[in-house]
Amino acid sequence: MASYESDPAVAQARSAKWEAALARNTLPDFVEQRLKDAGERKIPWLSTMTAAELLVTKSHGMRPIATVSGTCWYSYGYSWTEGHGAGWAAALARIRSEALACGANAVVDVHMRTIARNESASMDFTLLGTAVKFDHLPASSDPVIATVSALEFVRLIEMGIVPCGLAVGAQYDWLTYSSDWITISTASVYNQPLTLVGAFWERVRRAAHAELKRNAAKQGTGLLAHTHFGQLLKIEPDDDSQPSRILGRHIVIGTVVDTRRNSAVPHHIRTVVDMRDDESPLNTPTDKRPNTYDSNEQEGGI
Amino acid sequence: MSSTIEVPKSALDRLKGLRGEGHADGIFTSDFSVNEFLLVRKAGFEPIGLCVGSCIYHLGFQLAGWSSNQEMTVLSQAMYEARELAMSRMRAEAADMGADGVVGVRLTVKRLEWDTKILEFVAIGTGVVHAKGHPGFKGPQGQPFTSDLSGQDFWTLLHAGYRPLEMVMGSCVYHVAHQGLFKSLANSGRNVELTNFSQALYDAREIAMERMQEEASKAGAEGVVGVDLHEGSHNWQPHVIEFFAVGTAVLPITTEQDASSIPDPQLVLSVNS
Questions:
Q1: Which residues of chain B does A193 touch, with a Cβ-Cβ cutoff of 8 Å?
Q2: Interface test with chain A among B27, B41, B271, by most A beta carbons within 10 Å
Q3: Which residue of A50, A179, A197, A202 to mutate against B (max B Cβ within 10 Å)?
Q4: Does residue B23 come out as left (phi exceeding 0), alpha (psi in the -120 to 50 range) or beta?
Q5: Residue B236 in 3-state DSSP?
Q6: Cβ <8 Å between B8 and A203
Q7: Average pLDDT over residues B157-181
Q8: Do A226 and B33 touch (CB under 8 A)?
Q9: pLDDT band for position B255 (50/70/90)?
Q10: Nearest to B74 among A191, A226, A257 (CB)
Q11: Cβ–Cβ of A184/B77 closer than 8 Å?
Q12: What pLDDT sits at residue A301?
């Protein structure tokens, strides 16, 4: 059985290695070694895949190497919104370096994770997935990070679509006192659109989308945005002489894909009607999106 | 209805960048799932960009008689106008990026916590173009079509020989009369229909549906698919209910397709459930 003894000197050395590695944007040597050994098939592979996913992985000439991850606990000192962008970017860089260390071509089934700890103004940003290697390909110098399951990954690459990364667009802005939203909203009996707040909110959202696009363009040619999170908050001042303000923040996260326009879809699609009345694999909705944010569309119902 | 907000230049630039020559640097954004992306592609379309329109709207005020069944026209108009503004801004974004239409439109309403009379309406969907540049898929007046069908349903609709024209909607906010004390007493211990309640709900749904149908006629549709008729109460007093009808108006692609040419869905029975 593996050793569960704890030697303070070893633990301290380990901790020092983590510290040095994170500061240099590298991996500690023991992680590097483990991943390298996994890549060379000296130790058993670890995979987050289901048995069905293992099957298609095998049938498409891929094999799992290791479960890889990237974690960054990030404190957003001056901006919650930008902190989220930076936190995910750091996690993405780290999972990429782990994939590189084990000689992978891709990491599939990448999930976004976070542990809700309510540490003030900070959060952990973690990406977790399975590094895979194609038997007939050399190791990649820039492994792709696919936030889709192995089943979807295989189907996508068959159609010339490579899910290759994760892009975040996060922006915020402030709107200070204006008669538009204070007097009208409290006193008026008439229907009217609030154009000032509306225009402000559109600006924030557009800035977030523009940033998302810039980040995605560095990695691929398209983006499938799965997570939208927006909040308009009214912030009361500490001191009565100050006007209240509106904080608008918007985060969009998506899977970056690399594909040529008008690529063919080789599969034939057949329409089927499931004859089962109770729950069935064909009609049970599943949410496979790699999500950590609560969608804030709960009031959504049109 | 026209938008009161100019689309800023930076936004236009972003939107235009999408259809650059040869698509060397252009990047598309969308909120499709993987399966939707594949099916939209299979249907012969390419996503080009996320289209969003929003509207923050202040609802006016209206008094309703305690004991009367009546439409709250101020609120009906507000709920309709705000959605229409959000939709038209989304459509303007789509037109600016040269989209033939918008697929998978989701229309949401959110309350703002600091003021119950202010609602935020958002319309979001993915702008698509026909991969071979076929001009025949635009909506009414050469505008991009809009549709709340998912990528999967979009593929299926085209295979059924129809194309989407535009999302049509109808709203009716209705005040349901309270029962008088004598009426309540008279009913106690009896099985009896509360006809004034029946009538109120019936009438409100009918109005919402009629309004939607009228929009579909104006759009030149043959029919409306995926009609959703549902109720909502946006923090209003308990007897005020919104009935909202929404669906995608459709038209046959050329002439109506002969039914025999549409492949029959295969019946399957999954045994691994």
A1: 4, 55-58, 81-82, 85
A2: B27
A3: A202
A4: left
A5: coil
A6: yes
A7: 90
A8: yes
A9: low
A10: A191
A11: no
A12: 38
Residue contact A194–B265, C-beta within 8 A:
no
Please tell me the distance from the alpha carbon of residue B127 to that of residue B250, in angstroms, as a whole number: 18
Phi-psi region of A229 (alpha: psi -120 to 50; beta: other; left: phi over 0): beta
Q: Report DSSP letters for A62-105, one per residue.
A: EEEEEEEEEEEEEE-SS-HHHHHHHHHHHHHHHHHHHHHHTT-S
Is pLDDT of A47 > 60?
yes
Q: Is there a contact between A148 and B34 if contact means CB atoms under 8 Å apart?
A: yes
Mean pLDDT lowest among A28-37, A123-132, A232-241, B45-54? A232-241
SS3 A109: strand
**Which of A225, A279, A301 has the CB atom closest to B230's CB atom?**
A301
Q: What share of chain B is helix, strand, coil (3-state, %, to 5)?
A: 35, 35, 30
Q: Which fold has domain B9-253?
A: Translation Initiation Factor IF3 (3.30.110)
Question: Do the chains contact at A272 and B115, CB–CB below 8 Å?
Answer: no
Residues of B in contact with A220 (CB under 8 A): 27
- Which residue ranges make up each domain of chain B? 9-253
Tokens 């690459």 belong to A157
Q: Do B268 and A189 touch (CB under 8 A)?
A: no
Q: What is the token pair recorded at A267?
A: 């599969």
Out of A39-53, A92-106, A147-161, A170-184, the most confident range is A92-106
Fold annotation for A14-158: Translation Initiation Factor IF3 (3.30.110)
Distance from CA of B191 to the nearest CA of A (A): 34
Answer whether A263 sits within 8 Å of B41, measured CB to CB: yes
DSSP B146-178: E----HHHHHHHHHTTEEEEEEEEEEEEEEPPP
Does A78 reach chain B within 8 Å, measured CB to CB? no
Q: Which residues of chain A are within 8 Å of residue B232 when distances are taken between CB atoms?
A: 301-302
Spatial distance between the Cα atoms of A17 and A14, rounded to a whole number of angstroms: 5
Average pLDDT, chain A: 83
Higher pLDDT, B260 or A11: A11
Closest partner residue to A202 among B54, B110, B114, by Cβ?
B54
CA–CA gap between residue A226 and residue A229 (Å, rounded): 10
Polymer length in residues for chain B: 273
What type of residue sits at position A53? E
- Window A:233-252, CB contacts with B under 8 Å: 233-234
Among A106, A75, A94, A79, smallest CA distance to A27 is for A94
Averaged pLDDT for residues B30-49: 91
Is the pLDDT assigned to residue B51 strictly greater than 70? yes
ipTM of this complex prediction, to 2 decimal places: 0.74
- Distance from the B157 Cα atom to the nearest Cα atom in chain A, whole angstroms: 12
For chain A, the structural domain boundaries read 14-158, 167-285
CA B13 distance to own-chain centroid: 28
